[in-house]
């Protein structure tokens, strides 16, 4: 990729693909990622699965440069994310990220949480930002709660607000880091439903998840990570339904049948 494209401004409105090559990341003496090669085609949904500590969340954070890789390259759309001169602010305008915790501002209303970034980063007027925020809140079924504070919402509602907030930036790529792990089991479905709708609309998505049913239904591809390495990847039905690698088989046996019956 040329220097010009590496330091490019905003990407096109087309879905953004991701290409990761030779990605390494250590924390102190612990090597968390040991040479990851994988890609997400524009419009694809790729789910990362694996045991806790396998490197899934670190990989996701490297894509958005919330963690700095030690070696390797990451390309997001027209941006070389690991180039020394990449404009991270411009790149991140096109990447939405939803975390395990909701990270909403407790002192702001739902509407204010969804307008603060478009107003400050994109310099949208209050009227334009609020119109877009209300549109996204309507899509996640929460427009009627726009004036409430986060503490007045359930966990599932807060996570849906977090998704709406990310979508107000009109991203080309959505990153989800175990978005249902902090939720009550009864509210997991409402968040997964929103993610399913995004996938059907053609949003490029890279998802860290333990929800095997969701991955099997929605993902175009599933990547199984173990101890910082890609052990197996392929179509969701193959990786989850008929894995070929013993480590993948063992992981899925434990996840899908935790009582060992």
Automatic annotation (TrEMBL):
SUPFAM superfamilies: P-loop containing nucleoside triphosphate hydrolases. One of its GO terms (molecular function) is ATP binding. Belongs to the ABC transporter superfamily. Pfam families: ABC_tran (PF00005). Keywords: Amino-acid transport, ATP-binding, Cell membrane, Membrane, Nucleotide-binding, Transport. One of its GO terms (cellular component) is plasma membrane. It comes from Nesterenkonia sphaerica. It is a peripheral membrane protein. The lineage of its organism: Bacteria, Bacillati, Actinomycetota, Actinomycetes, Micrococcales. This is ABC-type polar-amino-acid transporter. Residues 18-252 form the ABC transporter domain. Its EC number is 7.4.2.1. SMART domains: AAA.
């Amino acid at each position: 990729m040329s220097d010009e494209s590496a330091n490019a401004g905003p990407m096109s409105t087309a879905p953004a693909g991701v290409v990761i090559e030779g990605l390494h990341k250590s924390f102190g003496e612990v090597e968390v990622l040991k040479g990851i090669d994988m890609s997400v085609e524009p419009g694809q949904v790729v789910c990362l699965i694996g045991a806790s500590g396998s490197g899934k969340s670190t990989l996701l954070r490297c894509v958005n440069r919330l963690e700095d890789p030690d070696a390797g390259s990451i390309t997001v759309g027209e941006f070389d994310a690991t180039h020394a001169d990449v404009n991270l602010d411009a790149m991140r305008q096109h990447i939405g990220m939803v975390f395990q915790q909701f990270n909403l501002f407790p002192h702001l209303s739902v509407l204010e949480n969804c307008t603060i970034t478009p107003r400050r980063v994109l310099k949208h007027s209050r009227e334009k930002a609020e119109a877009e925020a209300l549109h996204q809140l309507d899509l996640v079924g929460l427009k009627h709660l726009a004036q409430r504070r986060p503490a007045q919402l359930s966990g599932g509602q807060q996570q849906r607000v977090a998704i709406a907030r990310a979508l107000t930036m009109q991203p080309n790529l959505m990153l989800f880091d175990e978005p249902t792990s902090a939720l009550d089991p009864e509210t997991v479905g409402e968040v997964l439903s929103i993610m399913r709708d995004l996938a059907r609309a053609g949003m490029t998505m890279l998802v860290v998840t333990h929800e095997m049913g969701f991955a099997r239904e929605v993902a175009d591809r599933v990547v199984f990570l173990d101890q910082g390495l890609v052990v197996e990847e392929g179509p969701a039905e193959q990786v989850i339904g008929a894995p070929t690698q013993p480590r993948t088989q063992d992981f899925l046996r434990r996840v899908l049948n935790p009582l060992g019956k």
